[in-house]
Design goal:
Layout lengths: L5 E7 L2 E7 L1 H8 L13
Antiparallel strand pairs: 1-2
Length: 43
């Protein structure tokens, strides 16, 4: 899963975070097709 992982910037409540995500699942989450945020994180 980490082979195609990318770094994403997440800004919440005035804080900035860099997280490693699966790009395919992140796109599905952004499009509203996935509801669980934890499934987009690469681990």
């Amino acid at each position: 899963m980490l082979d195609n992982a990318v770094l994403a910037i997440l800004e919440k409540f005035g804080e900035r975070y860099e997280i490693v995500v699966d790009p395919d699942n992140a796109l599905l989450y952004k499009q509203g097709q996935k509801k669980d945020f934890l499934n987009i994180l690469a681990a």
